[in-house]
């Protein structure tokens, strides 16, 4: 195992290359620029291509084109670029072409604050493209080491599900410096929980079977299999059709190949949930403060637990079976995760939201809010950041 | 089915979905003739398409591998694909004037700048016809369309001293030609030259749309009248557009994929560019 001290941006780059990424196309944007810079330095050393595109749409579509030709590809951006991915992301979803997408979230809306962490793209990461009729896979790292593991995992899931997979990080993960372990042996790989799948080529002639099965290779062009790959609703051969019956088969496959195999995707951490009267819910960097707050609350004898979502979409409703008071802790002022938790929590539960943006909450702030909720006291709201939902 | 259609078209996609009398079929046909005369087989070409009539109507007709991009994005897909394909595979793209010269123009210019090896055939039907007939940036001045009911008033890319191909030349394209689909063998010869150029080539093929341009701008759907107007305006001797080979600098600039491969090789050894 190689032990280094590095950023999340470096971890993501190393992981992508380890997973077999040989093309990166991107457009510089804080705080994801370093991924592009690292890629420009490292990819040529493994015979891979770095391309700086004319804009974000082009970046992603260049990745789509390379992936359609059989290469593993990745792009990385922040919120203002992520929204521009809407078109090519949809193309990859519908054409069932694997690509890995990294979004390092910063403070919004729009350009907002470049160098401060936010969590404003929770829903955008679910509904990045238009037209609906799809399901998507989103993973959320909370540390530099996890950014490494989840980037590798994103490539793995992208191949098996032939779909774009999003790594939804935040500025603290990508800019933060921490110890990073890199695998050197097969045993290291097992220990770090890393898996790779090679790109396989679909032999045709049917490229889009009407099934939710996974591990069906994507269409790869250039092998003269008669592969047809497009944004149109495809028949089984990939031809465009206006027939609703084919559209239904297509949408059914896009949705259920992911939902029916979600056991491969679902990942979460739980702390003291079994007897908790109150459960804090979070993802990404804030979950590290939340974990400390949960431990501190337990030390004070409070029945407080925590859930950290590692995979965000498909949303893990099954984690919310306990009737309790829920508090989501998020890096935004408007409350996004809280809406899903409110929907998933059983009847009789209460749902609250703690928002902070651009900086992490403190353990003391969280404990104060937890105490008030447990004592049924009204929350001392400052602005919108703490409220009964 | 004729010989070329049998050789290159998917039987279920022939004769295609273009309107009766549409000049698009002639444009498509010119490309097949050029491919055939060069001895290209289905496995030698990956065929991409854009949006609009030419995109939709030519997608997946090629028997070999084929792809389609969203509005104006097919040039980016082709740029990525170029790196994954063996250099000897040809990429042909059939796209419309709106796709290439308007919504995708930035990407088209960048593909030209990089000299990405692809042959872009612009099937120019003088506006946005698949959406019902709105003006585009090659619609003749004064033409009435659904969105220029009092006549096309915007400066466009092919009149009043503008020439979109000149912009592409400045951007670095290495082969540029323009024809109408009624120009007989000349477009076929240009497309062959375009296919032989290892770099960014573009051939603009102007063709008559009978259903929308004919009805809205010319006031007739009558094939003979539409084609007659078209011949008078764009045919040999007419001063509508400069036709023929506009720029031939085949092989004069390094091709994108070759350039990036050689950069990568040198950089991998630690050599500076
Ligand atoms: S609308 Fe016009 S350009 Fe389109 S297929 Fe019909 S005739 Fe051709």
From TrEMBL, chain A:
Domain of life assignment: Bacteria
GO molecular function: oxidoreductase activity
Domain Pyruvate:ferredoxin oxidoreductase core: 276-358
Keywords carried by this UniProt record: Oxidoreductase
Pfam families attached to this UniProt entry: PFOR_II, POR_N
Domain Pyruvate flavodoxin/ferredoxin oxidoreductase pyrimidine binding as annotated: residue spans: 14-201
Keyword Transcription regulation: no
DNA-binding among keywords: no
Sequence intervals crossing the membrane: none
CDD domains listed in its UniProt record: TPP_PYR_PFOR_IOR-alpha_like
Xref: InterPro entries: 2-oxoacid_oxidoreductase (IPR052368), PFOR_II (IPR033412), Pyrv_Fd/Flavodoxin_OxRdtase_N (IPR002880), THDP-binding (IPR029061), Transketo_C/PFOR_II (IPR009014)
Protein name: 2-oxoglutarate ferredoxin oxidoreductase subunit alpha
Organism: Geobacter pickeringii
Classification lineage: Bacteria, Pseudomonadati, Thermodesulfobacteriota, Desulfuromonadia, Geobacterales
TrEMBL record, chain B:
All residue ranges annotated as the Thiamine pyrophosphate enzyme TPP-binding domain in the record: 51-204
Pfam families: TPP_enzyme_C
Highest taxon above the source species: Bacteria
Single GO term (MF): oxidoreductase activity, acting on the aldehyde or oxo group of donors, iron-sulfur protein as acceptor
Protein name, as recorded: 2-oxoglutarate ferredoxin oxidoreductase subunit beta
GO biological process: cellular respiration; small molecule metabolic process
InterPro entries for the chain: 2-oxoacid:Fd_oxidoreductase, THDP-binding, TPP_enzyme_TPP-bd
UniProt KW keywords: Oxidoreductase
């Amino acid at each position: 195992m190689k032990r280094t001290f590095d950023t999340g941006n470096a971890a993501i780059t190393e992981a992508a290359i380890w997973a077999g990424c040989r093309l990166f196309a991107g457009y510089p944007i804080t705080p994801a620029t370093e991924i592009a810079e690292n890629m420009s330095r490292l990819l040529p050393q493994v015979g891979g291509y770095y391309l700086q595109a004319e804009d974000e749409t082009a970046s992603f579509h260049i990745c789509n084109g390379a992936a359609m030709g059989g290469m593993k590809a990745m792009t990385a951006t922040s919120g203002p670029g992520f929204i521009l991915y809407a078109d090519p992301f949809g193309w990859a979803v519908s054409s069932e072409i694997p690509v890995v997408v990294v979004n390092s979230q910063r403070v919004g809306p729009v350009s907002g604050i470049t160098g401060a962490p936010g969590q404003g793209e929770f829903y955008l990461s679910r509904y990045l493209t238009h037209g609906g009729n799809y399901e998507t896979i989103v993973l959320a790292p909370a540390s530099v080491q996890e950014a490494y593991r989840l980037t590798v995992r994103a490539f793995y899931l992208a191949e098996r599900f032939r779909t774009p997979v999003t790594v939804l990080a935040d500025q603290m993960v990508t800019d933060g410096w921490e110890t990073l372990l890199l695998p050197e042996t097969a045993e290291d790989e097992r220990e770090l929980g890393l898996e790779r799948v090679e790109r396989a080529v679909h032999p045709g002639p049917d490229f889009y079977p009407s099934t939710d099965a996974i591990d069906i290779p994507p269409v790869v062009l250039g092998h003269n299999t008669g592969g047809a790959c497009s944004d149109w609703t495809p028949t089984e051969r990939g031809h465009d059709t206006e027939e609703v019956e084919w559209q239904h088969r297509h949408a059914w496959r896009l949705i259920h190949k992911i939902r029916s195999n979600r056991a491969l995707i679902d990942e979460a951490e739980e702390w003291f949930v079994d007897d908790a009267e109150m459960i804090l819910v979070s993802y990404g960097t804030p979950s590290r403060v939340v974990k400390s707050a949960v431990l501190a609350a337990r030390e004070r004898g409070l029945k407080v637990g925590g859930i950290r979502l590692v995979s965000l979409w498909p949303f893990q409703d099954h984690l919310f079976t306990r009737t309790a008071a829920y508090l989501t802790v998020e890096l935004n002022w408007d409350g996004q995760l809280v809406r899903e938790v409110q929907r998933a929590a059983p009847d009789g539960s209460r749902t609250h939201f703690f928002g902070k943006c651009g900086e992490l909450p403190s353990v003391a702030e969280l404990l104060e809010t937890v105490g008030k909720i447990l004592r049924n006291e009204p929350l001392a709201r400052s602005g919108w950041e703490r409220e009964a939902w | 089915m004729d010989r070329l259609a049998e050789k290159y078209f998917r039987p279920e996609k022939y004769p295609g979905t273009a309107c009766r009398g549409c000049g698009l079929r002639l444009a498509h046909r010119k490309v097949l003739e050029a491919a055939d005369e060069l001895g290209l087989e289905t496995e030698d070409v990956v065929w991409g398409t854009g949006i609009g009539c030419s995109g939709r109507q030519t997608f997946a007709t090629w028997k070999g591998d084929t792809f389609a991009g969203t509005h104006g994005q097919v040039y980016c897909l082709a740029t990525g694909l170029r790196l994954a394909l063996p250099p000897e595979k040809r990429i042909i793209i059939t796209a419309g004037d709106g796709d290439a010269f308007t919504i995708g123009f930035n990407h088209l210019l960048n593909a030209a700048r990089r000299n990405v090896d692809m042959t872009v055939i612009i099937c120019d039907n003088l506006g946005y016809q698949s959406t019902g007939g709105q003006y585009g940036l090659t619609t003749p001045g004064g033409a009435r369309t659904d969105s220029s009911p009092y006549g096309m008033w915007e400066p466009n890319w092919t009149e009043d001293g503008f020439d979109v191909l000149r912009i592409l030349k400045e951007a670095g394209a290495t082969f540029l030609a323009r024809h109408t689909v009624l120009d007989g063998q000349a477009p076929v010869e240009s497309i062959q030259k375009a296919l032989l150029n290892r770099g960014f080539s573009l051939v603009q093929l102007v063709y008559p749309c009978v259903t929308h341009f004919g009805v809205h701008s010319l006031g007739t759907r009558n094939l003979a009248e539409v084609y007659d107007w078209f011949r008078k305006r764009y045919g040999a001797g007419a001063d509508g557009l400069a036709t023929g080979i506009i720029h031939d600098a085949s092989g004069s600039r390094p091709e994108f994929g070759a350039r990036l491969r050689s950069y990568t090789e040198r950089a991998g050894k630690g050599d500076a560019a």
